[in-house]
Structures are given as structure tokens and as C-alpha cells.
Design goal:
Elements: E1 2-9, H1 10-14, E2 18-19, E3 25-27, E4 32-33, H2 46-58, E5 65-69, E6 75-79, H3 81-91, H4 107-114, E7 117-124, H5 127-137, H6 146-153, H7 157-166, H8 172-177, H9 189-199, H10 203-210, H11 217-233, H12 245-252, H13 259-270, H14 281-287, H15 300-309, E8 326-330, E9 345-349, H16 350-357
Parallel strand pairs: 4-6, 5-7
Antiparallel strand pairs: 1-7, 2-3, 3-4, 5-6, 8-9
């Protein structure tokens, strides 16, 4: 890759700046693509955004930026999008700092900002070199999420279309399923979750196969089906966030759940002191696997007392063992309303406990 050091003034950078939402963001007299397909959306909060402007006002140097040179002589941002948008939106009056917008500044201060020199490397090379360079230089910056990197590698019409639905705060998927998903829409974590579900974990394979398709309708339709299924069967939103809904939909979508019975069990489990992970209640009710509930274990004190009561003997084989070579077991299973209390505890040797669990 060929790299050339250039100086670009703010007045030239902001000339022709336009934010056309999904159509893209441009500047530098329309010749600079500020948000190419592999770039993240603008995510700077007020503090780092304002720090960029403060740096420019004081004449201090900003970190170097990288622009890729296209075959037609135009440019796209490899690194520096957040700083560029911070500058352009301030100059164009989109926000103020301490009550002062750009137009409120004295003429000499405006002139100083417009003549501020930005240090930019112009990078010329192949698409693969450009993407490799993008990933390399972003290591030292705000770390990319795994899905942001995948969007870079599989940039194309499919990613651009999918981001319209899955990557916007207050966008379609945010409003449809924000109560059910962990992570952030604009950091591409909603998109990552949806692809993981439809591909059964093979995210890269799915993105590679769909990279050049013109729309993401298949993914959107699938995701809507998952949401319809979970909303039909499960009602307690306070314990729904972050559940691996798509995975359960793939396996259990044809199972007949009776919502009223499910919710009755949900209420009982929420009140059960032995259940330490309420987020696992729906996975447990769907699969029947108690591991999702992280059931409260017997304490060291309880185990020690029962070990002493039994004279160190395993309740099954009657042989004597040190407590470290024994495990606590519910006499009456939790599933049959047995509680995690001393009177319901028996100490078994590891071998007998394993045999009992495997019955």
C-alpha cells in the first residue's frame, strides 16, 4: 500500500458536507466518503465529541487520520470518522458547546477553526489491503465489536440493507425487540444476534453467502417470526432480556406452550429462594434443564454439619470419607419441592452422588 502524508484544512473538509442518512455521509467538496460500508455509525458521546472541538480551538494537534484513495480519485475514510463528523457537524451548526454554536463565535475564532490543519495519510492499495489496514489502525482506537469487523470484511449491499433495520437506536428492531436483546444496536450487536440465530452460530458463513445480495429480507422476516413466537408464549418482560430466543425458536417453535400455565410457573419460580438466576426461568421452562436456574447450593456450614451428623459416612455405601471427598445432595429433589436446607441434605461420596444423578 502506498501512503502519502497530506495536510487538509477544516474549511476544505467541511466544504460540501452532507449527511444523507442511509445514503451516506460526504465532505471535502463531495469527494470524501465519510461513512463507507465497513465503518460504524457515529458513536461519540458529548464529552469526546466536544474534546475534539476543544483541541481544534486551542490549535493542538489531533491524531492523524487515514483516507483511502479510490480509483476515480475520490476518497473514503479508513480512520477518523468520529473526529471528522464531530468537526463537520459543529461547523454546520448541529450542536453547541457551553451554549456557543460555531456561528456564535467571533469572526477570528471561526477563521482559526476553518484554517486548522488536519494531518491525513492518503492510502492507495487494493480492497484487501485497505480492509487489513482499517483493522490494524483501529486496534489502538475505540475497539471495534466483532460484528463491526465482520461488517468490514463482508461489506456490500446486504450489510448496508441489514443495518437499516438492525443498527439504529429507535429503529425498527430496536423498537420491536429492544426489551429482549442485550447489547447495542449502533454497535451492531443486535445484527450479530439475529445472524447468529438464523445461521445457528455460523455468522461468517451466512454473511459470506449473502454479501452481494441486494436485501436482507430473509433475516428480517426470520427475526420477526422469532419475536411473534416469544410474545405469543411468554409474557413477563422483566426476565426476557438477553435470553437466547432465536436458538430456542429454532428447536421448540412447534412445541405447544400454554401461556397461562407458563406464567403461573414463572411467578412461583420468581418467589422461590432457591432460584438465583431469574433470567434463566424461561430457558428452564422451555428446555426443562435446571442448570439455567443456578439453584442455590448447600453452604459449607450446612455440609459440615450434615457430615458430622452422619459420622463422616456416605449415606449410601456407609463408608467413611473426608468431607472434601463427598458431595451434598437433596434428599427430596428441588423439582419435587425439596428445599436447600440442612434437614433436606445428605452427604454422599463422589461415586454414589454421580450414580444417583445419572439415574
Amino acid at each position: 500500500m502506498k501512503i502519502e502524508l497530506k495536510t487538509i484544512l477544516v474549511k476544505d473538509l467541511t466544504d460540501g458536507y452532507e449527511d444523507n442518512a442511509e445514503e451516506g455521509v460526504v465532505g471535502y467538496k463531495g469527494k470524501l466518503d465519510i461513512r463507507p460500508p465497513y465503518q460504524r455509525n457515529f458513536i461519540y458521546k458529548d464529552k469526546p465529541r466536544d474534546a475534539v472541538i476543544d483541541t481544534v480551538k486551542k490549535g493542538f494537534p489531533l491524531n492523524v487520520m487515514y483516507w483511502a484513495v479510490r480509483k476515480n480519485g475520490e476518497f473514503e475514510v479508513i480512520d477518523g470518522q468520529q473526529r471528522i463528523i464531530s468537526i463537520c457537524t459543529y461547523v454546520h451548526g448541529d450542536y453547541s458547546i457551553n451554549g456557543l454554536a460555531f456561528d456564535n463565535l467571533p469572526d477570528d475564532k471561526q477563521k482559526d477553526i476553518m484554517n486548522y490543519p488536519l494531518t491525513v495519510y492518503f492510502c492507495t492499495g487494493t480492497e484487501s489491503e485497505k480492509l487489513d489496514w482499517f483493522k490494524t489502525i483501529n486496534i489502538a482506537g475505540l475497539e471495534l465489536t466483532p460484528q463491526e469487523l465482520r461488517n468490514a470484511v463482508y461489506a456490500g449491499p446486504w450489510v448496508s440493507d441489514a443495518k437499516r433495520y438492525f443498527s439504529k437506536i429507535n429503529g425498527l428492531i430496536y423498537n420491536l425487540a429492544g426489551d429482549y436483546l442485550n447489547g447495542s444496536a449502533n454497535r451492531q450487536e443486535y445484527l450479530e444476534t439475529a445472524i447468529k440465530w438464523i445461521s445457528k452460530g455460523k455468522i461468517e458463513d451466512y454473511m459470506s453467502e449473502h454479501q452481494h445480495k441486494t436485501n436482507s429480507k430473509e433475516l428480517l422476516d426470520y427475526f420477526k417470526k422469532v419475536v411473534l413466537w416469544l410474545e405469543k408464549n411468554f409474557k413477563t418482560k422483566t426476565i426476557m432480556k438477553g435470553v437466547d430466543w432465536g436458538t430456542y425458536y429454532n428447536e421448540y417453535k412447534d412445541k405447544n406452550f400454554i401461556s397461562k400455565k407458563i406464567e403461573s410457573k414463572v411467578n412461583a419460580l420468581i418467589l422461590d429462594d432457591d432460584v438465583t438466576n431469574n433470567k434463566g426461568i424461561y430457558p428452564y421452562l422451555i428446555t426443562g434443564d435446571e442448570k439455567h436456574l443456578s439453584l442455590r447450593a448447600f453452604t459449607k456450614s450446612q455440609k459440615l454439619k450434615v457430615h458430622q451428623k452422619q459420622g463422616g459416612k456416605c449415606k449410601k455405601c456407609k463408608k467413611i470419607f473426608d468431607i472434601e471427598k463427598m458431595e451434598a445432595d437433596h434428599i427430596i429433589a428441588w423439582s419435587k419441592d425439596g428445599r436447600t436446607v440442612e434437614d433436606n441434605c445428605q452427604m454422599l461420596c463422589i461415586k454414589d452422588h454421580k450414580l444417583l444423578k445419572n439415574k
